[in-house]
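Sample pair:
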Amino acid sequence: MKREHNYPIGTPGTPWGDDEKAQWLAQQTIKRSYQEEVVTKIDALRDRFDVSQYGALSYDPTKYPLLVIKSRNWSNDKPTALVTGGVHGYETSGVHGALMFADTEAERYAEHFNIVIAPCVSPWGYEVINRWNPQAVDPNRSFFENSPSEEAASLMAMVKELGVEILVHVDLHETTDSDETEFRRARAARDGLDHFEEMIPDGFYTVGDTENPQPELQKAIIDSVRKVTHIAPPDANGKIIGSPITQEGVINYPLKELSLCNGLSDCTYGTTTEVYPDSDKVTDQECNVAQVAAITGALDYVIKQLD
């Protein structure tokens, strides 16, 4: 359904220029601390994992280092599993679910995989609780060569420098009420387009790759997560956020075509998780646990395929 919105920035029907983007940026404020809430948790893992810096955001390199957590006893004889969180910095459980997985579960999977965790790909977005970076660029539409997003470009370079093939990639996200009340409206205004309202699904779902959907992997993740939280139902048209479901709680996107994070490699087993933190049925902690359950569900499934 089309909705007429006069977003407070720009002229309806006209894409933003530099002035509008500067106006948008001036309205962003720091609401939480990446250093205190994320970096301190990563630092606490240094005695158990190899933690390194793979870059820093030019907006403030000291404040926004980009950090990666790797399992020890790295071996090229083991497959590599990548976990990414905070590609959209405002999606809180993506960040803290990745950190919880590192702290509580990652070591037991290191027997089977080299584990690589980038828990907060967009630390500025984390602090201002926004989907975009300061240039009004969406990092999760920017995973391509010569990317305009420092966040995406830095992550792609780090993965390339690993020098290994990624077998499994779990990218942790949320779908929030603010997607509809703010971010989709802002995107339409930025691009000079109409805004079409979409239902926000109440529950967890995954996004597979249209070109490599791996339905059994997605099912294993859904079955793991349903022990923690509820699975999103489709709307009256059998869709979730405008896409037809392929099975309970699963939709597919053309990941590489859309330049999404989960399409950054040619992994065999890939998924994007979507937690709904605004539901009155869940707590913040349960959202984090659901992300962990998604990762472990995926890894347990892949281990069975490798046996």
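The first strand starts at residue 2 and ends at 3.
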